[in-house]
Amino acid sequence: MKILFYMPHADAAAWLHDFARALPEAELREWQTGDTAPADFAVVWRPPREMLAGRDDLRAIFNLGAGVDAILALEHEHPGTLPRNAPLIRLEDTGMAPQMAEYVTHAVLRYLRRFDEYQTLQSERRWQVLEPHPRETFTVGVLGLGVLGAQVAQTVASFGMPVRGYSRSARQIDGITAFAGETQFDAFLDGVKVLVNLLPHTPDTGDVLNKRTFSRLAKGAYLINVARGGHLVEQDLLEALASGQLAAATLDVFREEPLPPDHPFWQEPRITITPHMSALTLREESVAQVARKMAALMRGEGVSGVVDVERGY
Length: 313
Ligand code: NAP
Ligand code: GLV
Hints:
Blueprint: E1 2-6, H1 12-22, E2 27-30, E3 41-44, H2 49-52, E4 60-63, H3 69-77, E5 88-90, H4 96-112, H5 115-123, E6 140-143, H6 147-157, E7 163-167, E8 177-180, H7 185-189, E9 194-197, H8 211-216, E10 221-225, H9 234-243, E11 246-251, E12 271-273, H10 283-298
Parallel strand pairs: 1-2, 1-3, 3-4, 4-5, 6-7, 6-9, 7-8, 9-10, 10-11, 11-12
Helix pairs in contact: 1-10, 4-6
Bound molecules: NADP nicotinamide-adenine-dinucleotide phosphate and glyoxylic acid.
Glyoxylic acid binds at residues 65-67, 281.
Enzyme class: oxidoreductase
GO molecular function: glyoxylate reductase (NADPH) activity
Pfam family, one: 2-Hacid_dh_C
């Protein structure tokens, strides 16, 4: 089996070494410009168009992340980039779900216990106890109840706050009040105190974090966006913070990454910024999952995590 690898800024030698250990019979190479030699599988993150276009020999393309918006955008801009008969397969959890649960729980508890405000008080050398937020009404709403959203929702619920979840199709998760489809969107949002976004970025979900969405939340709500920058209408966030409709936001993802130094978000003390690190791709877990799926495909078996290109996730 021949495997092509492409992941900018990664330690390619380490990835190839781990793949060679998992699949000793495989021939592995890092893709270089002009490489059109045969391959069975491509393992990629944000590949250039030339790597995939016209490669009808591929049996599958493995995306080294959960989100496939970048590779689908390439297909959208240059139709035919993705080989017709090769499924696109994304990572499922591979250690990202616990990372995401930690990140979001940390942010929710920080707001619940008002640590953000205590940090400001400390900077002003003020000794003052703030009225705690009542836990029973500190409702957390998780947009997206997939591999990551479901684990985040359950982890947050274990701290005793009411938790709601929103997905496209109906889901049942113990301890979570579930809403599904556009007709239940407003009911999901109404009165939510912390809105967490874990939707994939698709034509249906772009700009979902907007003025209208914010207006349905409880007054002084919090936003945690860990999915994609394209979900957020940035000006609407700044206005919602200025009006007090939102109290604060934690953002891990941005329309432009790295976030440019002159971006207004850097100047807004109520916005907490992290550099797209809420759930990193872990090499060991990812190689193990991808290698297992390659072996299954070679045996003619089906695998999970196949992206529905039309749906966008
Ligand atoms: P997933 O398993 O595919 O789950 C997606 C969830 O969103 C599903 O519950 C799906 O509904 C729901 N959904 C999709 N379109 C919808 C729509 N139009 N309306 C309502 N619900 C919709 O994805 P995942 O593995 O949890 O990952 C989610 C996203 O997290 C990724 O796409 C990626 O953008 C982001 N991410 C970010 C980082 C980071 O470091 N910041 C790391 C990893 C992933 P159904 O259940 O009905 O299908
Ligand atoms: C990271 O953002 C991912 O989609 O895995």
